[in-house]
Amino acid sequence: MSRLKLYGISKSYGAIQALSSVALSIEPGEVLGLMGDNGAGKSTLVKIIAGNFPPTSGEILIDGRPVSFYNPRDAQKEGIEVVYQDLALCDNLSAASNVFLGREATKRLGPFRYIDYGHMNRVAGGLFRQLKSETRPRDLVRRMSGGQRQAVAIARTLLSKPKIVMMDEPTAAISVRQVAEVLDVIRRLRDQGISVILISHRMPDVFGVSDRIAVLRRGELVANKRAAQSSPEEVTGLITGAIETA
């Protein structure tokens, strides 16, 4: 059974058709590379899956059950997490505090409650070990490399034991070594049975970790095939329109 299934997803803003009848699925423990030029509809599709706004028409199924999302909290309850390109981290806080941001663990002392930093450090450390990241819970985010920051953002999604993690341009503007670290983390998520949707313009990264590649052009799905059966040249042609469909 597919982890996520989209049927006929369309989204219009007045006369502008952002998405047109997109049908797509992702299996448990699968990495789906989602590609397309700027304005192709990638962000719109991700925001619909993440519950930022509903589709104009179409249906979303999680583990075979129809679901409706009215806000991101609804999507999170169904196991959907997003790592956005800006990461939304607080530079002045530690890695552990960022992992628990908005969900801080607390202890009671008489009539008072206080933040349980020890628990947060232990749990965050376990998540970093799970990702095989060198990030340490007490490290300040402002002193971290791009790859370590990605690890913190990804660890934050794991706190809720997600079924699906969507990652928006996770390897943009980081070094080659850090790119390798992030791709390794994506593989580890897949090995844990988590479905990953990787939105990226970087062809080597997408082909390096994706099991399947989907291409959007002008709001329409023009390809959905195994990565091993495609090539960067074909995907480039699909994105630009030199190749109509595949």
Number of domain units: 2
**Biggest sheet, spatial arrangement of strands:** 6-9-10-3-11-12
3D shape: globular
> What name does CATH use for the topology of the largest domain?
Rossmann fold
SS element count, helices: 8
GO molecular function, one term: ATP binding
Protein name: Sugar ABC transporter ATP-binding protein
Family: Belongs to the ABC transporter superfamily.
Keywords: ATP-binding, Nucleotide-binding
Structure report:
This protein has 246 residues and is an alpha/beta fold. The protein has 2 domains: 4-79 and 162-240, Rossmann fold (3-Layer(aba) Sandwich), CATH 3.40.50; 90-145 and 152-159, no CATH class. The chain has 8 helices and 12 strands. It has helices spanning 42-49, 72-77, 95-99, 117-130, 146-158, 176-191, 203-209, 232-240; strands at residues 4-13, 16-26, 31-35, 57-62, 65-67, 80-83, 106-109, 112-115, 164-168, 195-199, 212-217, 220-226. Helix 5 packs parallel to helix 6 (176-191). The chain is globular, with a radius of gyration of 19 Å. The mean pLDDT is 94. Residues 4-243 form the ABC transporter domain. It comes from Rhizobium glycinendophyticum. This is Sugar ABC transporter ATP-binding protein. Keywords: ATP-binding, Nucleotide-binding.
